[in-house]
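Backbone-to-sequence.
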């Protein structure tokens, strides 16, 4: 089963504390997720974010509803947090959110998502035909929504070793 990586960076024109506060509020994910996914958080508010927190979502794709549950695996305020899917459509979804202070009024936010698609060769095919493009579209939307809400520049795909990383495969 292949492991894919999606990497994004975005400069947010807010302090690291303000930026982290926005992204650590699970309900802001509803605000930056494309409407066509019908994304809703099922976990009652308030959600106390810390290592061990479970968050339940529902969403739909092409009219097919499904639930998604994530575990906050790591939590370091104003530095990073990691969420891992424990129930949902992926064989693996491991999302690291990192926050780096550029200066007092700017923060670099970095997303690194490691994911695997189930169903063997059919999963590989679905990634090529659909999943990779859909994830790029969703993360592009998130970057634009974040920029609109927080005044930041739109996200861009990180250049690593002279090549653009959108979703790359690492064979297992």
């Amino acid at each position: 089963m292949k492991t894919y990586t999606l990497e994004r960076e975005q400069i947010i024109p807010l302090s690291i504390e303000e930026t982290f506060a926005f992204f650590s509020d699970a309900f802001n994910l509803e605000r930056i997720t494309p409407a066509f996914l019908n994304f809703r958080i099922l976990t009652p508010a308030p959600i106390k974010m810390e290592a061990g927190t479970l968050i339940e979502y529902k969403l739909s794709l092409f009219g097919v509803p499904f639930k998604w549950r994530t575990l906050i695996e790591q939590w370091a305020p104003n530095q990073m947090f990691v969420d891992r899917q424990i129930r949902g459509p992926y064989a693996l979804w491991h999302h690291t959110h990192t926050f780096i202070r550029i200066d007092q009024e700017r923060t670099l936010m970095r997303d690194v998502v490691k994911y695997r698609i189930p169903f063997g060769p059919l999963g590989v095919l679905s990634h090529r035909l659909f999943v990779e493009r859909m994830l790029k579209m969703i993360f592009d939307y998130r970057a634009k929504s974040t920029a609109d809400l927080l005044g930041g520049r739109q996200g861009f795909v990180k250049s690593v070793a002279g090549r653009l990383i959108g979703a790359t495969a690492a064979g297992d």
